[in-house]
């Protein structure tokens, strides 16, 4: 017998299945919304399609929306790692010194940019 455990939307009174995970980087005033993370984390929120699509952020905040690849059905467990990387870059002082990281190798292509955050695609 196959048992499937699904998570529900974190919004109050919503019983829909969660399909996206939301994390916040308060120091950078950024909300990161991406595919459902593999594991539920205490500082992230699982959202259904309706609540993910209608997500807004406070004035002055940025929303980074990560799209899941259509051919990938595996949940995206690196969303929290992305948020941690953003937090770490804020702590390291790279922003104050003007240093910018460069992609490792010619196989990475910058797809989008929002402030100091970049979305890279492996070509």
**In the residues, how many domains can be counted?**
1
* Strand neighbour order, sheet with most strands: 3-1-2-4
Distance N terminus to C terminus?
40 Å
- Strand fraction equals 25-35%
> Would you identify the regions where 5 or more consecutive residues have pLDDT less than 50?
69-76, 94-104
Total DSSP helices: 3
Order of helices and strands: EEEHEHHEE
Residues in helices, as a percent range: 10-25%
Reported for the largest beta sheet, the result is:
4 strands, mixed
Mean pLDDT, as a whole number? Answer: 75
Structural class: alpha+beta
Shape: globular
Rg, alpha carbons: 16 Å
Give the strand tally: 6
Describe the structure.
- Helices cover 19% and strands 27% of the residues.
- With 123 residues, the chain is an alpha+beta fold.
- It has one domain.
- The strands form two sheets. A four-stranded mixed β-sheet has the order 3-1-2-4. Strands 5-6 form a two-stranded antiparallel ribbon.
- It is globular.
- About 15% of the residues have low confidence.
Short description:
The chain is of the alpha+beta class and 123 residues long. It is 19% helix and 27% strand.
Considering the chains and any ligands shown, give keywords for the structure.
123 residues; alpha+beta; two-stranded antiparallel sheet; 3 helices; 27% strand; globular
Topology, please?
Elements: E1 20-25, E2 30-35, E3 44-47, H1 49-53, E4 62-65, H2 79-92, H3 94-97, E5 108-114, E6 117-122
Parallel strand pairs: 2-4
Antiparallel strand pairs: 1-2, 1-3, 5-6
